[in-house]
Amino acid sequence: MRKNSKERITTSILKKIITFFLILIFLAIQLFLYYELLFGVYFNNQKVWFWIVYFSCLFLGCIVIASFYNKNINTSYKLTWTILILLFPFFGTFCYFLYGNGRSMPRRKNKKIRAYLLNRISKTRTKDLYLNKDQVGYNLLKGLEASTGFTCYTNTEVTFYANIRDKHLRFLEDLKAAKKYIFMEFFIVSEGKLLNQLYEILLQKGQEGIPIYFIYDDVGSKATLHSKTIKKLQSIPNLLLKAYAPFGQNMNPAINYRDHRKIVVIDGKIAYCGGDNLADEYIHEKVRFGYWRDNALRLYGEGVHGFVYLFLEMWYMSSKERLIPEEFLYDFSQHVPPIQNDSIVMPFGDGPTYQSHPSYNLFINMITSAQKSIRISTPYFIIDKEFINALCRAARNGVEVEILVPAIPDKKMVFYMTRGHYENVLQAGGKIYEYTPGFNHAKNVIIDSKYAFVGTTNTDYRSFFLHFECGTFLMHDKSIVDMNKDFTDAIKQSNEISLESWKNRPLYQKFIEFLLTFLSPLL
Q1: Are 405 and 453 in a shared domain?
Q2: Could you tell me if residue 350 is inside a domain?
Q3: Helix pair 304-319, 107-118: axis angle to 10 deg
Q4: What are the distances in angstroms from CA 233 to CA 188, 199, 214, 225?
Q5: In this structure, are 283 and 411 located in the same domain?
Q6: Of 110, 259, 352, 468, which residue is 20 to 30 A from 461 by alpha carbon distance?
Q7: Domain stops at, among 56, 73, 99
Q8: Is 146 exposed, middle or buried, given 0-12, 13-18 or 19+ CB atoms closer than 10 A?
């Protein structure tokens, strides 16, 4: 099922070392070319050879720029690579080939993956009932359906968890009650109390003969999941464990296109999705960067079907095994009385298998449709001018714009990138809050207290344009009230950033933010 752990780690380390030295070599060559241009030491002040090499590299760089000019890649991403390649043709072109191909996948492979599931997803006409009742919600649904191929559902009960500890307790109880199968997919699986509790339940379920399908991201879990624990999980009867895109087996040394999704499906009846991974900091058994704020959703009902399809998509990519979706879908219409509410839910996925950028487009559409309020919670706020301008237009039009980010960073460099995007929003009248008790990892968007997103997508380039992500779009659901309350409670504990204090920050911070903001599309 898995390459030998020692061999995998050795291969991975070797490739990292090779990549590191290649970068140093190409950077040294680039610096030498500029040195020769200035001083002409080695070519006896005749720079003919320099210009031959330089223009050859520049010509190759221009071909590279032309190749991605018409691609469906974010404009800021294109611009940053263009500047880097033109300034440093030799080094920039090499780095682009190594890291910068954007979010793309071979068309043939893409078609296979999409065809495997999309033609099986039964479309509901429920959303058409909202055309006359809610034109805004209808448009948001139609746009999301067009970019993903997924559909919306009614007859679904949604529970919002503002505290992952509460979600975890319910999650374990649901696992214990599993009768048919269990799907689990996480970016990070970490040693600790949470994993130990989970192992005991999975062992019991496996011994009962219940199939368990478990995916974890190889890069996300590399530093947190020991090889002994991997073997221990693999020894559970009826449990199939897959690492998505093992790093040591991947010829591309970049760590893009990771499986950042977090999905649990139980018996086709229950699904969980949110920002939390399988690690102790999420349930407050381990302190990292203060109090770890996160949230998640529990779905019970027809909306679970969407997460079945999402998991099967990644299982196929990780194992090449095509499971039959119909064997994992639960028919709620025949076995359960309809759930009486007015809510509509739409689980959906995002990633290199999608031609557009569903999460990014949804967020933009939600922002531009706002009439009263926009509330965004995110651990990172690293995004392009189009997104920033949409927020600024909304704020100038009288929409209350509130953005919640961490005050205590998990990565210092990313923290500076986030702060580099404050100014325009503050000038337009938007409000930015830094969550002071700890690290804000919650990822949600709430518009006019009617529409909301909860999922795995950060407001940054990596989530929007590189990783595999997932989430749930909600309309008119009672859980949105709980989300609003949780957001309000969070900003009460946060430090509001004023425009005046922002302008008076130290000069060195301004320089770091300027430099990193320019490079942010590449990082």
Answers
A1: yes
A2: no
A3: 140
A4: 15, 7, 9, 11
A5: no
A6: 110
A7: 99
A8: exposed
Do residues 311 and 371 both lie within one domain? no
Q: Are residues 281 and 419 in the same domain?
A: no
Looking at the structure, tell me whether residues 239 and 291 fall in a common domain: yes
Distance CA 180, CA 81 (A): 49
360: enclosing H helix or E strand: helix 358-369
Amino acid at 212: I
Find where tokens 């996300």 sit: 220
Can you give the three-state secondary structure of 469-488, one letter per residue? EEEEEEECCCHHHHHHHHHH
Q: What is the CA radius of gyration of the chain?
A: 24
Cut 0.90: pTM above it: no
- Please, are residues 99 and 80 in contact by the beta-carbon 8 Å criterion? no
Under a CB-based contact definition with an 8 Å cutoff, are residues 272 and 167 in contact? yes
User: Number of structural domains, the chain?
Assistant: 3
CATH of the domain at 426: 3.30.870.10
pLDDT at 102: 53
pLDDT digits (tens, 9 = 90+) for 339-376: 778 889 999 999 888 878 899 999 999 999 999 999 99
Q: How far is residue 241's CA from residue 55's CA, in Å, rounded to a whole number?
A: 50
- Written as one string, the DSSP assignment of 51-74 is HHHHHHHHHHHHHHHHHHHTSS--
Residue 91 structural domain: 5-99
